[in-house]
Every structure is written in structure tokens, then in C-alpha cells.
Amino acid sequence: MAKEKQSSFEFDFVFDENSSQSQIYEYTTRNLINNVLEGYNATVLAYGATGTGKTYTMVGNGVNNGIMIRTIKDLFYYVNSNIMDNKQFIIKISFIEIYNETIKDLLSNDNSIVELKTDSKKGLVLKNALIKKISNYIKRQFEICTAIRHGSR
After folding, report:
1. What's this model's pTM, rounded to 2 decimal places?
2. What is the pLDDT of residues 91-122, one digit of tens each?
3. What is the spatial distance between Cα 42 and Cα 45, in angstroms, rounded to a whole number?
4. CA-CA distances (angstroms) from residue 92 to 38, 47, 85?
5. Is 23 helix (H, G, I), strand (E, B) or coil?
6. CB under 8 Å to 25, separation ≥6 — which residues?
7. Which of the residues 5, 38, 52, 129 has the least number of beta carbons within 10 Å of its own beta carbon?
């Protein structure tokens, strides 16, 4: 008889079905904005079985914005304000999905396959992933949110 592997998981917090998009964003992601504005990379990952609400949590439904849309709005608020001591910013975005061990580029028109590679100088890189550089922040905020909603379909 095969011995079953024991798994254990540790959670910082568990949200129930009554949790709002705002509560989830405030608890999990909003505190990352300042780090990003100081030059650090940040990743927010939703993981779970099909149908458990990952897309709703990350994108929302048009009425209740998810983590990604709220992050873009907050990020652009700080970049467009004078709060950041006249710093200049370069904003680049990518949007990928990992499903059944396949990485897809959700910003590309054809959801092309992306390869995970190791670069001696950069570390892990996503080969062939579309990375969009955002220049006109006010105009582009709407376009980014639209692209995210389109990619999540």
C-alpha cells in the first residue's frame, strides 16, 4: 500500500464569503504600494481550484473592483500626486495565468505561451511575456483596467 504524503499549510488570514473586495485589498495588498513606489517588485497571487473566486478576487466584476484594479488606481493616484517628492516613475505591467503547469500571457491577443527561464543576471524571467510600459498615466489607467478585464475572460 502506498504511503500518502502529508501536507501542511499555514495561513496568515482566511476570508469568508462575507468579506468585501475592499477588506481583502486592504488586508493583502494596499501595504505593498509604498514598497513598489520605492522600487521593489511585488507580486500578488491568487491560488485555488477552478470556480473558487480567484478571478473575482483579482479583477472584480465591474461593480466591485478586485485587487488588480484597486492597485492600479492607488498606484496612479500616488504617481500623479506630489506626494512622492517629484520622483520619476517607469511603470511596466504584465498579466499572466498559470494553469495546469502552463503559463499564458493574458495581455497578448492570442494568450501566447510563456516560458519560465533562469537568467544569470536577472534570475527568473518570463520569456516571451508581453511587458507593457505605461507612459501617459492618466490616459492609460483606463486602458490598463480594460486590458486586465479583457485578459481575465
Report:
1. 0.74
2. 777 888 888 889 998 888 887 899 989 989 98
3. 10
4. 15, 23, 21
5. helix
6. 66, 67, 70, 71
7. 5
